[in-house]
Amino acid sequence: MIKKIGVIGSGQMGNGIAHVAALAGFDVVMNDVAADRLKSGMATINGNLSRQVVKKAITEDARKQALARIALAESMEGLADCDLVIESAVEKEDVKRKIFQEVCALLKPDAIVASNTSSISITRLAASTDRPERFIGIHFMNPVPLMELVELIRGIATDDTTFDAAKEFVTKLGKQVAVSEDFPAFIVNRILLPMINEAIYTLYEGVGNVEAIDAAMKLGAHHPMGPLELADFIGLDTCLSIMQVLHEGLADSKYRPCPLLVKYVEAGWLGRKTQRGFYDYRGDKPVPTR
Ligand SMILES: CC(=O)CC(=O)SCCNC(=O)CCNC(=O)[C@H](O)C(C)(C)COP(=O)(O)OP(=O)(O)OC[C@H]1O[C@@H](n2cnc3c(N)ncnc32)[C@H](O)[C@@H]1OP(=O)(O)O
Ligand SMILES: NC(=O)C1=CN([C@@H]2O[C@H](COP(=O)(O)OP(=O)(O)OC[C@H]3O[C@@H](n4cnc5c(N)ncnc54)[C@H](OP(=O)(O)O)[C@@H]3O)[C@@H](O)[C@H]2O)C=CC1
């Protein structure tokens, strides 16, 4: 029975996962590499819960109870008695492998370990742990408190008990499950990221500027966000990592990351999280950077 959840990484996804798990009544321990990251993750949760209170989506009492259920841990030792640990650190395989090595040594033998990876093979990540049977992909969508879907991805060794427990957990959060086979970038990102990458090629080749491309897809295809706005929202580093996994994993040139995406990432212009990407967010309203 899953009661206590550990979340590794307190960035936009990690703090969103902690938010929805605490709101659903789970005890949560959130871990990150630095105290200031944890502080800002907690501040984001507080702000997003408050918005939900203002919108009458939740009560003030529920907000207070959710906040009280979240503990912060600067060290992974704080995760030792968790029943399920969800890793949501950066989309880099070597970083994730190191995290799993460290955390698995501390956990109860029957604890489940999950990754919120956007694209990396669950089978390969599972093989780097001491418990491939109890390892699974639980892939949330951004922003976590608002998006209805969670993808569940079994590695080759994931057992039925782990899958059923993960499904029950996700259902308790009020989310819908889509089951994906373990292939690069799963379902949502296999479809979404090539579209975003193509939008960046459209910009790179001068077919349209940032505003025209986003307006075209918002007004012409009724997407809630334009593809470049969405890329900034996801994080351009994450977008590039996903394209690289698709390109390498499927060995097809149609997944070649756009050189302009590479350039933005190399500049450290990662989108909203660094205040600059295809838009500059440092002023009153976002201004296109091309
Ligand atoms: C990369 C991966 O691995 C997988 C992925 O996640 S891919 C990304 C998937 N996500 C998407 O495609 C999102 C596309 N965008 C949307 O659906 C919408 O723009 C949206 C749901 C994010 C916002 O909806 P909206 O009504 O247009 O925006 P907005 O009026 O600003 O926000 C509505 C409410 O959403 C909430 N909200 C917005 N952004 C939020 C965030 N980042 N976190 C939490 N809540 C948020 C707020 O409560 C906000 O209410 P307020 O009026 O109090 O601000
Ligand atoms: N962005 C999105 O739309 C989505 C992302 N994902 C996936 O979720 C994961 C996290 O993405 P996202 O939240 O956007 O990324 P962010 O960059 O917002 O957050 C990542 C967090 O993890 C921290 N971190 C890095 N290394 C470690 C470590 N060794 N131990 C603990 N924490 C660490 C980072 O700290 P620091 O900044 O100091 O390095 C940062 O606080 C990725 O795997 C991504 O692919 C899944 C669905 C949607």
TrEMBL record:
Keyword field contains Coiled coil: no
InterPro entries the record matches: 3-OHacyl-CoA_DH, 3-OHacyl-CoA_DH_CS, 3-OHacyl-CoA_DH_NAD-bd, 3HC_DH_C, 6-PGluconate_DH-like_C_sf, 6PGD_dom2, NAD(P)-bd_dom_sf
Domain 3-hydroxyacyl-CoA dehydrogenase NAD binding as annotated: residue spans: 4-182
Site feature (Important for catalytic activity) residues: 139
Pfam family, one: 3HCDH
Keyword NAD listed: yes
Domain 3-hydroxyacyl-CoA dehydrogenase C-terminal as annotated: residue spans: 186-281
Single Gene Ontology MF annotation: oxidoreductase activity, acting on the CH-OH group of donors, NAD or NADP as acceptor
Protein name: 3-hydroxyacyl-CoA dehydrogenase
Species name: Bradyrhizobium erythrophlei
